[in-house]
């Protein structure tokens, strides 16, 4: 396949994944803000903006962190170069550019999603409609994923699609954890103050992991097992370990097809080493924040080396 | 324009209101349809087109970047008999065009014989000196041609225009049929219509048959598009997808080791046949337009070395010229030794002083076109223009008569469209698509029917608000 098409496919799936993750983050933020006093709610909205890496852009335009401003900025504001609306547009543009590499079902799912959402996001979203809009964003992403799973040939194109998805998802999980890492530090849990389990709920919700976590832990909650779950549990589809196992699988498929490994494979294996055969205690010993910073940087490196190794650009 | 339906030939209705033979089967079905169901189907079709992204981009309109071409659900129907004659005429014309291209770039017998004035192509912007003496693989120049036909009476089909440069619209021909079959499946069991869905396979086969000798095994075919902002991008992607070919842009291609190669994830790989949907000017910045960012530097050298096939061959745009068009009857006769089966529309060449005088005196009745124009731009339709528009056009014409030809305002045939108030006649034309390779000529039965959606309007171009219809050729 063309390097440019691989590039389009990779980024189409990255943007779709990012739009979905962003919606999830807003949902969790919104839930949190409903149960908080104004200051705490605003702090929550600030952490949403921080997680998305939009603080610089946001603070150029606003000096407060209200739900209305944050949601509008994140979802659709023209002031924001990476609004959900822009991401959906970029995903669609990339789908259009690689139209002959994806199935009609995938294209229709992307195009229809874009039509529905660009209409919903044409004006400011009322708080009463926020839940519907966010659910629609996740739903559209689900439809594309389903169409991809059910209709795409398992070839090189599919591998690039999945690679983009998991690079983005790993990045998103790591960022969410990094913004909230202090909540999960064992030292804080040991302080013995009243445990703020709603904060933990919030972290799990931003990753759609609350149900799975409860199911696995029979309702018990402690920071250690939450961190363990989100970072190392190979069964949870948004954990770092899961993302990297999927990444390895898809990069291996590419290596097999091409008959050779690339720098991306080397970088991926090194990163995976840091996840496999490790206990959460080891990561706490290293420092959770330091671990996550390193992870995010190496994830970025893998993305860059993939682009280079597979000739995304001339 | 005050042409009403009864002055024009209508494809469906005779002047007395009875149904023509072609439409008997269809009318039987239509008369049993419920009006509200038909209306609902019409809006369903539109949402299918939106969802599947069958759109086109209009140049110079930033607000509506992707638009739908209006689709009308009443088919344009051609009988098996009519089609037999049409397809013979089309094949004859396309073979003549290809022979003409070969001759123009070789011995120029037609000029030596005095049948065609030399100045006609010497001053033609589409004429490429780089093509002189070069023979493309299989001696094929016009791999894909669209022949625009109009009808003025029961047996009066005429060629209005030849499109040998980069004819577009074939994806609409295919999608219109898909849409009709999805909307009214029972209709196709009642009326037997010849299928069109083979076109992409035929295209792939025809292009592969023109591969250069250096192609190894199954030839690699790629579609070259200017990119996603081009007005016909949907069609480029569609055809690449349907053929299983790569859809490439200039930036994906490079000349390496004397071959045109595309940047794949495994490195550069040679292309044997390039179905280009960019104009000659944007093919090779080293040979043509140095400012082009779309082209592939050095591709013309590879082409002239016979190591890649470009379809259509560079320089075939000469045939689209409307002054050349006026000589088509002579051209057909010269190369085939036969009388043309399909007539031309009477054409006055404004370069000729007597013709110019006539045209200037009769501007209000004539259609005047630029010789290199296309897409319905830059033309004057006398009968529907204001005095001021005619005055302004007259000045342009007098300043540069060589640049224009004129034709009578034809009473184009009409075909009913479905409106909220029932059927209403609108003017139509027909663009059949023709493939040519050393293995032969292949014409898909039917083609693209374009329809002027406004009452009385003669302009069918999609860039000017025209729509399309499914076009049927009845099976015997």
UniProtKB/TrEMBL annotation, chain A:
InterPro entries: ATP-dep_Glu-Cys_Ligase-2, DUF403
Domain DUF403: 1-310
Top-level taxon of origin: Bacteria
Pfam entry (one): Alpha-E
Coiled-coil regions listed: none
PANTHER family: BLR5612 PROTEIN, SLL1039 PROTEIN
Record's protein name: DUF403 domain-containing protein
Source organism: Altericroceibacterium indicum
Automatic annotation (TrEMBL), chain B:
SUPFAM superfamilies xrefs: Glutathione synthetase ATP-binding domain-like
InterPro entries: ATP-dep_Glu-Cys_Ligase-2, CP_ATPgrasp_2, UCP005522
Protein name as catalogued: Circularly permuted type 2 ATP-grasp protein
Residue ranges constituting the Circularly permuted ATP-grasp type domain according to the UniProt record: 75-452
Pfam families for this protein: CP_ATPgrasp_2
């Amino acid at each position: 396949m063309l390097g440019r098409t691989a590039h389009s496919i990779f980024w189409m799936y990255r943007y779709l994944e990012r739009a979905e993750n962003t919606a999830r983050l807003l949902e969790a933020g919104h839930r949190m803000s409903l149960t908080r006093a104004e200051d705490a709610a605003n702090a929550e909205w600030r952490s949403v903006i921080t997680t998305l890496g939009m603080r610089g852009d946001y603070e150029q335009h606003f000096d407060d962190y209200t739900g209305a401003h944050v949601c509008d900025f994140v979802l659709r504001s023209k002031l924001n170069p990476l609004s959900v609306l822009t991401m959906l547009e970029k995903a669609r543009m990339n789908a259009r550019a690689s139209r002959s590499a994806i199935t009609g079902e995938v294209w229709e799912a992307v195009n229809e999603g874009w039509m529905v959402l660009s209409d919903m996001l044409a004006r400011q979203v009322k708080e009463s409609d926020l839940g519907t809009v966010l659910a629609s964003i996740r739903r559209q992403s689900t439809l594309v994923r389903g169409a991809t799973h059910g209709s795409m040939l398992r070839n090189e194109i599919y591998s690039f699609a999945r690679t983009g998805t998991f690079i983005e998802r790993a990045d998103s999980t790591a960022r969410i954890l990094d913004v909230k890492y202090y909540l999960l530090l064992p030292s804080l849990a040991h302080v013995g103050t009243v445990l703020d389990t709603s904060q933990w709920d919030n972290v799990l919700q931003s990753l759609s992991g609350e149900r799975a976590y409860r199911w696995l832990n029979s309702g018990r909650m402690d920071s250690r097992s939450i961190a363990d779950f989100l970072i190392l549990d190979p069964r949870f589809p948004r954990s770092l370990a899961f993302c990297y196992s999927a990444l390895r699988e898809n990069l291996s498929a590419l290596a097999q097809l091409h008959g050779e490994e690339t720098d991306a494979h080397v970088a991926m294996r090194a990163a995976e080493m840091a996840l496999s055969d490790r206990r959460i205690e080891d990561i706490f010993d290293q420092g959770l924040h330091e671990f996550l910073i390193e992870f995010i940087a190496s994830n970025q490196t893998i993305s860059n080396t993939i682009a280079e190794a597979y000739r995304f650009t001339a | 324009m005050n042409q009403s339906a009864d002055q024009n030939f209508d494809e469906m209705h005779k002047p007395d209101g009875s149904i023509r033979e072609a439409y008997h089967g269809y009318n039987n079905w239509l008369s049993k349809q419920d009006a509200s169901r038909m209306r609902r189907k019409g809006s369903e079709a539109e949402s299918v087109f939106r969802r599947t992204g069958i759109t086109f981009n209009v140049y110079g309109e930033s607000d509506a970047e992707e638009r739908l071409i209006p689709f009308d659900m009443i088919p344009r129907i051609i009988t098996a008999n009519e089609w037999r004659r049409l397809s013979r005429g089309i094949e004859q014309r396309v073979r003549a065009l290809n022979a003409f291209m070969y001759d123009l770039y070789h011995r120029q017998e037609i000029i030596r014989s005095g049948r065609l004035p030399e100045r006609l192509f010497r001053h033609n912007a589409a004429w490429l000196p780089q093509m002189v003496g070069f023979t493309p693989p299989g001696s094929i120049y016009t791999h894909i041609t669209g022949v625009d036909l109009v009808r003025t009476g029961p047996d009066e089909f005429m060629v209005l225009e030849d499109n040998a440069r980069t004819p577009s619209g074939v994806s609409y021909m295919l999608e219109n049929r898909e849409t009709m079959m999805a909307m009214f499946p029972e209709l196709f069991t009642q009326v037997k219509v010849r299928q069109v869905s083979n076109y992409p396979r035929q295209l792939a086969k025809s292009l592969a048959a023109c591969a250069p000798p250096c192609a190894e095994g199954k030839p690699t075919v790629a579609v070259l598009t200017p990119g996603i902002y081009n007005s016909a991008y949907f069609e480029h992607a569609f055809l690449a997808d349907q053929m299983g070919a790569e859809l490439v842009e200039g930036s994906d291609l490079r000349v390496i080791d004397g071959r045109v190669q595309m940047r794949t994830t495994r490195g550069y790989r040679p292309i044997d046949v390039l179905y280009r949907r960019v104009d000659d000017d944007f093919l090779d910045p080293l040979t043509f337009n140095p400012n082009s960012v779309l082209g592939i530097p050095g591709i013309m050298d590879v082409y002239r070395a016979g190591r890649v096939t470009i379809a259509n061959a560079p320089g075939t745009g000469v045939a689209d010229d409307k002054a050349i068009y006026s000589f088509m009857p002579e051209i057909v006769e010269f190369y085939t030794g036969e009388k043309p089966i399909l007539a031309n529309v009477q054409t006055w060449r404004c370069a000729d002083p007597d013709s110019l005088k006539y045209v200037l005196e009769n501007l209000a009745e004539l259609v005047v076109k630029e010789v290199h124009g296309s897409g319905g731009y830059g033309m004057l339709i006398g009968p529907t223009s204001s005095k001021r528009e005619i005055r302004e056009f007259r000045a342009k014409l007098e300043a540069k008569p060589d640049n224009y030809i004129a034709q009578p305002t034809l009473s184009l045939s009409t075909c009913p469209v479905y409106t909220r108030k029932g059927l209403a006649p609108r003017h139509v034309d027909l663009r059949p698509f023709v493939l040519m390779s050393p293995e032969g000529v292949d014409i898909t039965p039917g083609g693209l029917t374009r329809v002027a959606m406004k009452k009385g309007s003669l302009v069918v171009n999609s860039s000017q608000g025209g729509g399309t219809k499914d076009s049927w050729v009845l099976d015997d």
